[in-house]
């Protein structure tokens, strides 16, 4: 089921007397989620992720704007008639009921013409349990399950009504690191098998990048970028998106363009055909190449061997953070440890942003001649 959000806005009254005025949790959202995809909705705490989900499932009514499911306007449709399954972070299971009864619960509450026969309910429960590989555990109580298994019961309970859309609000945040990894693979598998359009909310960028077909990055209620994970990583729309995606994070420097030279401090690190201006330069950790002929020098602070790669910690006076981090292949670092390390830069791993508003300046970057030439 394709989901389309059209000028979707949600304002809440602000209870803060010192700063009165509405809080705009979701601000003029316009985007379409294609049928059958897994979407990662990503952004820092308070950016409006949960509100977006609540609007899609109907628990909140928009202040303005519309929601369409497969072309049908569902903005005024009650939550129970939208065909949406939802799994929350606190997926409260009923402790006194078996897994079977927990999964069956939403079906037992169907009313009128939606009511199902006992046999139909049993069949649906078994189908949902199979989808999440729980069919062996149907007679257990929740306390006899691991955290990951409990989470799968919550997903089965959302799937049993055969929803058109599945919404998962931080479904992994109560699980430990190993289970998180396992359960997110499981969610990916279930989504591929059921082909239900699924929106997955997380503030963990790595989680979103690893399992989503598309990611939607939000900040303060405003959509920043929507795209395939790799596209958004490789072509961030602005400094916020560039900083939000990637571990270790992108290194940020204040710089300038003078006579077609991109300068950080007094060093020309790249060339760009742009008018003179102040810029913010973002360099991904993998964008550095240790190069004795390189024009960008940083003070070396330390080296960590990461197995295949080497992580170099260095500092530069124009860097936003005290230390910068470069990930390089296992090159010989035959430079004096206590001294400067010289880098050249990979042009596709460097981005220029407007120094004032952080928007990306699209341009072709070129490497300058080495310092010895
Ligand atoms: N019922 C409400 N009344 C007033 N303000 C609200 C209400 N619900 C959310 N907000 C505000 O709207 C903004 C977005 O909240 P929301 O819960 O959607 O963010 P979020 O991205 O899901 O955050 P988190 O990751 O912390 O769950 C926040 O500023 C929040 O304080």
UniProtKB/TrEMBL annotation:
Residues 3-245 form the ABC transporter domain. Keywords: ATP-binding, Nucleotide-binding, Transport. Pfam families: ABC_tran. GO terms for molecular function: ABC-type transporter activity; ATP binding; ATP hydrolysis activity. It comes from the Bacteria. One of its GO terms (cellular component) is ATP-binding cassette (ABC) transporter complex, substrate-binding subunit-containing. Coiled coil: none annotated. InterPro entries: AAA+_ATPase (IPR003593), ABC_transporter-like_ATP-bd (IPR003439), ABC_transporter-like_CS (IPR017871), ABC_transpr_MalK/UgpC-like (IPR047641), Mo/tungstate-bd_C_term_dom (IPR008995), NA-bd_OB-fold (IPR012340), P-loop_NTPase (IPR027417). PANTHER family: MALTODEXTRIN IMPORT ATP-BINDING PROTEIN MSMX, OSMOPROTECTIVE COMPOUNDS UPTAKE ATP-BINDING PROTEIN GGTA. This is ABC transporter ATP-binding protein. It comes from Gallintestinimicrobium propionicum.
């Amino acid at each position: 089921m394709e989901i389309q959000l059209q000028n979707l806005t949600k304002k809440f009254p602000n209870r803060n007397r010192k700063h009165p005025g509405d809080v705009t949790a979701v601000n003029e959202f316009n985007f379409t989620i294609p049928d059958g995809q897994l979407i990662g909705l990503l952004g820092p705490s308070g950016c409006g992720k949960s509100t977006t989900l609540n609007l899609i499932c109907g628990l909140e009514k928009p202040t303005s704007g519309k929601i369409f499911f497969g072309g049908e306007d569902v903005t005024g449709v009650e939550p129970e008639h939208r065909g949406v399954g939802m799994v929350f972070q606190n997926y409260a299971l009923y402790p006194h009921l078996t897994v079977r009864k927990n999964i069956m619960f939403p079906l037992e509450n169907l009313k009128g013409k939606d009511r199902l026969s006992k046999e139909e309910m049993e069949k649906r429960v078994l189908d949902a349990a199979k989808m999440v590989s729980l069919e062996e555990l149907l007679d257990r109580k929740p306390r006899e399950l691991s955290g990951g298994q409990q989470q799968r019961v919550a997903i089965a309970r959302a799937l049993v009504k055969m929803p058109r859309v599945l919404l998962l609000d931080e479904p992994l945040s109560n699980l430990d690191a190993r289970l998180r990894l396992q359960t997110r693979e499981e969610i990916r598998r279930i989504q591929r098998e059921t082909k239900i359009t699924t929106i997955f909310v997380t503030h963990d960028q790595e989680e979103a990048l690893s399992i989503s077909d598309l990611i939607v990055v939000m900040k303060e209620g405003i959509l920043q970028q929507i795209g395939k994970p790799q596209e958004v990583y490789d072509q961030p729309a602005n400094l916020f998106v560039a900083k939000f995606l990637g571990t270790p994070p992108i290194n940020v420097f204040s710089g300038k363009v003078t006579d077609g030279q991109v300068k950080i401090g007094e060093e020309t690190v790249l060339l760009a055909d742009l008018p003179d201006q102040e810029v913010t330069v973002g360099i991904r950790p993998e964008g550095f190449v240790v190069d004795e002929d390189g024009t960008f020098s940083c003070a070396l602070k330390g080296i960590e061997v990461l197995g295949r790669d080497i992580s170099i910690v260095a500092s530069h006076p124009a860097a936003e953070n005290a230390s910068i981090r470069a990930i390089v292949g296992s090159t010989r670092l035959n430079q004096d440890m206590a001294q400067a390390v010289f880098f050249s830069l990979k042009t596709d791993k460097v981005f220029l942003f407007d120094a004032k508003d952080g928007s990306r300046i699209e341009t072709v970057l070129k490497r300058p001649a080495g310092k010895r030439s």
